Amino acid sequence: MKRLYYCLFASFSILLFLSCGGEDEPSPSKSKEQLALEKLTGEGTQTWIVGAEGSVTHKGQNATSDFIDFEITFSSSNDNKAYTTSNSNLLFDESGTWSFEGSNFDKIMLSGSQPAAREEIPFSGQGSNLRLEFNVPSPVAGRVSALAGDYVFMLKKK
């Protein structure tokens, strides 16, 4: 009888041990680039606005009223990264491409010919907020100097 008891106990212990196996394989963590893409483009395309809850400063002064209807849309599919803007007061091009600058994936550069183009634009944010911060250098012959200076755009998801 003791032998039967030990055999049952050993069988039960082995079954219990085997049923406790490891956890399911963890999902692979996302790269810095994937996280940055999600921050800017959501699931592929994301529009950001100033609207009633965002703000813009230029040279440390509130310039929100000049950009109240500003919108910028970032999109990304495969290796194609594009942007469109509206109501940018000649600061941004209406459309173009964008790319990450550096290996930290916390800066972008926009293509185009307007003052914000070809400038490193650090970005940060979480959830429904996005902060773009950049400097437009003083113009060299012929460009309007009123657009030069530091900008901070505090944008909200549309």
From TrEMBL:
It comes from the Bacteria. Keywords: Signal. Residues 1-22 form the signal peptide. This is Lipocalin-like domain-containing protein. It comes from Echinicola strongylocentroti. The lineage of its organism: Bacteria, Pseudomonadati, Bacteroidota, Cytophagia, Cytophagales.
